[in-house]
Amino acid sequence: MAMWVFGYGSLIWKTGFPFDESLPGFIKGYRRVFHQGSTDHRGTPDFPGRTVTLEAAHEEVCCGVAYKITKEEDKRDALLHLEVREKQYDQKEYLDFFTDSNASEPAVAGVMVYIASPDKKSNNNYLGPAPLEDIAKQIVKAKGPSGPNRDYLFNLEEALAQLGFKDKHVTDLANQVRHILSESEELDIDATAATANNV
């Protein structure tokens, strides 16, 4: 029996395990939010980054990619990889996956999904909601072993766009981060010019 894994964050563009088939599509009743703190990939314990998790949301959908894994050895390798990679995500759900918005039956039933819950007892890295500008400022500054937090956001934005998916939360956040970076560059240019004039 095949195992299916749903990716809605970095798994979309960086899978990290062997698979036999990938299907773009969506799950129902959830939305993607930058509410999970990352202290091991896109941030540090002293300054966490923010990565996506899923939040229950009636009548909303979360787009991503489902990966089919059939060989037993590949299943074991995938699970070993995911249990390390997603170790800060404290819930594992099995949800219906759709590829057609008009379909009443899922394309795949029971895709495995890693979710970081808001339960602080089981997930002490949960950061929760915050104003868009505050989340953007945190993402601009944070970086970890896997690289700058902003790269995670921009990679997600690009990966979704390449699949033809739109996610307002991701787009708005990416635009806010670009705005902050643009302002920072302008300040750097002004400071450099002022220093040059004083030499």
Radius of gyration: 19 Å
Morphology: globular
What count of domains describes the coordinates?
1
Which second-level CATH architecture applies? Roll
The name of the CATH topology is Hypothetical upf0131 protein ytfp
Keywords: Cytoplasm, Lyase
Catalytic activity: glutathione = L-cysteinylglycine + 5-oxo-L-proline
Function: Converts GSH to 5-oxoproline and cysteine-glycine (Cys-Gly) dipeptide in vitro and plays a significant role in glutathione (GSH) homeostasis. Has no activity towards gamma-glutamyl-L-cysteine but possesses very low activity towards gamma-glutamyl-L-alanine.
EC number: 4.3.2.7
Topology record:
Layout: E1 3-7, E2 21-38, E3 49-69, H1 72-85, E4 91-97, E5 108-115, H2 132-141, E6 143-144, E7 147-148, H3 149-162, H4 168-198
Antiparallel strand pairs: 1-3, 2-3, 4-5, 6-7
Subcellular location: Cytoplasm
Protein name: Gamma-glutamylcyclotransferase 2-3
Active site: 86 (proton acceptor)
How would you characterize this protein structure?
- 32% of the residues are buried.
- The protein has a single domain (3-198), classed as Roll (Hypothetical upf0131 protein ytfp).
- The longest helix is centred in the last third of the chain and has 31 residues, at 168-198.
- Helix 2 (132-141) packs across helix 4 and helix 3 crosses helix 4.
- It has helices at residues 72-85, 132-141, 149-162, 168-198; strands at residues 3-7, 21-38, 49-69, 91-97, 108-115, 143-144, 147-148.
- With 199 residues, the chain is an alpha+beta fold.
- It has 4 helices and 7 strands; from the N terminus they run βββαββαββαα.
- 35% of the residues lie in helices and 32% in strands.
- Substrate binds at residues 5-10.
- One of its GO terms (biological process) is glutathione catabolic process.
- Belongs to the gamma-glutamylcyclotransferase family.
